[in-house]
Amino acid sequence: MNPLKQTKKITFLLSTFIILLSWVIGYIFLTSQFNASINNQISQQYENINKLFISHINQDKKTYALELKKLISITGLSKAIFNKDYNKLSSIVSPVYKNLIQSNNSVEILTFRSKEGITLYRAHKPDFYNDKLNKKRKLIVDTNHFEKSFNGFEVGKLKMTYRVTQPIFYNNKYVGNVEIGLKLVNFTEQLKSIFTIETGVVIKKSYFNIMIKQKNTVINDNYILLCGNDKLKACFKNLNEKSIFTYDNNLFKIKLDIPLKNHLNETLGFLILGLDVSTIVRENRSFMYQFLALMITMTLVLGIVMHYGFEKILKYFAKQTYTDDLTNLENRLALNNKLLLNKEYVLILSNIKNFSSINELYGIDMGNKVLIQVAKIFNDFAKENKFNAFRISSDEYVLLKQEKVFEPEIYIELIDKLHKKISLFKTQIENTIDFISIEIHSGIAFNGQQTLIDAQMALKKAKENFLPYLAYSQNVDTKKEAQNILKIKSLIQNALQNQNIVPFFQPITNQNGDIIKYESLIRMLTFEDGKEKIIFPDDFLEISQKSGQYIEITKQMLNKSLSFFKDRNEKISINLTPSDLFNSVIMDELKKNIKKFDDPKRIVIEITEQEGVKDFQRTIKMIDRLKLSGTLIAIDDFGSGFANYSYILQLKPDYLKIDGSLIKNILTDKDSQILVKSIVNFAKDLNILTIAEYVENLEIFELLKEYGVDEFQGYYFSKPINLLHKD
User: Fold this and answer.
1) Which of 288, 322, 245 is nearest to 32 (CA)?
2) Cα angle at 15 between 11 and 17, to 5 degrees?
3) pLDDT higher than 50, residue 211
4) CATH annotation of 498-725
5) What is the distance of C-alpha 594 from the center of its chain?
6) Which class does domain 53-278 fall in?
7) Minimal CA–CA distance to 638: which of 615, 594, 608?
8) Alpha helical stretches, state H, 328-363
9) Is residue 594 within 8 Å of residue 602, measured between CB atoms?
10) Residue 275 and residue 244 in contact, taking contact as beta carbons nearer than 8 Å
11) Cα angle vertex 314, ends 312, 319, to 5°?
12) What pLDDT was estimated at residue 107?
């Protein structure tokens, strides 16, 4: 044989062997990675399901404990329990229960019992099983014994429900209790709304042996399956207590490790979860086969096309695999691969509000046009702010950025900026003069591999609460400030909607101690566990200014304060900053309320700015306009900030409020005494009245009267009070 041909043959055989060996090694490697990836994704799914299930249990426990407290507080109910008056109970509870089951699909039964454990009244749906076997259950016995609330799962006849109890007192004596029963299916349906799973319930044989004799129950060595589909039943027969996964053609996996506990923290059974992993397997297998085919193709043509640019070909195939065909953004597979690097990312997940309506009203082509244009906005925004942009499903977009340190303020501003850009989006409908505008919801997360899942949960919660965006609530320490800002913004929005921005009024007296005036001070009311909580302006006012909610807050304060005092004899003092004077919306609201007063001189406008005023001359003009309307002007915190003596000569106010830091220490601080005397004398020469804040005791009051102060305000007279809702 020709040596050259022989060499070529040997080279060909050797090359073929190397190529085949590389294929085998590649296949083995990809297969191992494939299995590891699937198991990793499944483990993460179960972990997230477990967290969400516990979260829903805790939330419903709080919700229905509060519902029971409201029910107990109804006039006459506790007395009816004490008298064992069934008719009275029925007349009170029946309409409440009807409303409750109409608005809360999870509610099954509502039961009232005497302190002896006797059932006095039971409201339940027609198909709810009346559990006669457990008439005096441990939960109720413990409620009677300890006279406090309990909650936990209970097992009835082929049913497991979640029970919440509350004790009932009449004339401060324990007379009985009320119990509400919630369907377990409510919790499992909530899980199914987010995850593609099948659920069932198993209980221990040792806990409820009577179940063994029931028909259609599936039993193994340790447990009884109360409910579940055929796949769950088939897998359950061979499941033991140490099992983690049971495989059925590698497409259906189950896990049994979410305990269902009673009120004594005893485990009655478990929630069994069945996960159809066919989609996960299909997507991973598709990627593996695509990658394997690409590797085989490339090894075959490597020697031929090397000089034509192997790198370009590789990039082309990668683009086909990782790029969204419609928008040319990176796709879900590209995002998953980045997240699998297990680095720390900031992830913003957004979807278009009511996008399906666009497709239905204007057609698929118009919908695609919107998706392409929105993708461009996201891509431009990503480039401007060093993110990567992805389209991961029909109308879902992701912005991803690797970040070791999370800066809350930066990302709050960024998400606001993104939503504002989207709100400006308009696209013309073909053959019409109309335009389509859109809005988005967003979820924000900062984490490793499960960042996307966290963002999806945040997005779902934002939609439920009608918020534009929300951050995932279980975050690392660096995100607590951002989460707090988002929470405060949400509280402000709810307070504005429910008229819970309220003025508290602090009295101002003359030298005789008679109340002649009130100052309106802003407060925000929230309700936690049915209790009113007062939030002070330091905790929310600055955030409202940055979020654009400040103007609406100021309008509500003006309306409520001035409307309340328009028919009273006392004067009312309200606070405005110089920047408020330049805001046309605020000033229009003020003018509208001033017109309601028969004597505008009963309104005092306090200018509260303590920093230097950039445009002082403009401020003087605005104050002069207020004077022309008939209102009086007070300069707050005189003795600090911009309000110095030369400015007062130009402003010519009606009142000077002496800075509180001077009053606090006036009994012991000689400098404060000298300065206060100077301010009082200066004001008297100009016929300006003086007001002293922070009058905490009689000694300060008497000393200030000696100095000639005209009016007084402080805790010695009264704290700020809510006159709008006096008990």
Assistant:
1) 288
2) 120
3) no
4) 3.20.20.450
5) 39
6) alpha beta
7) 608
8) 332-339, 355-362
9) no
10) no
11) 95
12) 83
Distance CA 717, CA 9 (A): 107
User: What is the CA 504 to chain-centroid distance, rounded?
Assistant: 28
Higher pLDDT, residue 45 or 86: 86
Topology (CATH level 3) of domain 332-491:
Alpha-Beta Plaits (3.30.70)
Tell me how far apart the alpha carbons of residues 562 and 6 are, in angstroms, rounded to a whole number: 105
Token output for 578 = 């110089």
630 vs 291 pLDDT, higher one:
630
Q: How far apart are CA 553 and CA 493, in angstroms?
A: 10
Whether the pLDDT of residue 613 is over 90: the answer is no
Report which of 705, 702, 700, 671 is spatially closest to residue 690, judged by C-alpha positions: 705
Confidence at residue 661, expressed as pLDDT on a 0 to 100 scale: 87
Residue 464, helix vs strand vs coil: helix
Angle CA(576)–CA(582)–CA(588) in degrees, nearest 5? 80
> Residue 534 in 3-state DSSP?
strand
CA pair distance 298, 306, nearest whole angstrom: 10
What's the pLDDT tens digit per position in 65-118? 888 888 888 988 889 899 988 888 888 988 888 888 887 777 888 889 988 888
- Count CA atoms closer than 13 A to 438's CA, side-chain side: 28
Structure tokens at 654: 């009606």
Question: What is the average pLDDT value for the chain, to the nearest integer?
Answer: 80
Give the tokens for residue 583.
Answer: 């805001």
Cα–Cα distances in angstroms (integers) from residue 719 to residues 296, 526, 554, 694, 714, in the given order: 81, 20, 22, 10, 7
Q: Which helix (H) or strand (E) holds 102?
A: helix 86-103
pLDDT, residue 138, reads: 76
The angle at the Cα of 332, spanning 327 to 333, to the nearest 5 degrees, equals 115
Residue with tokens 């925004």: 381
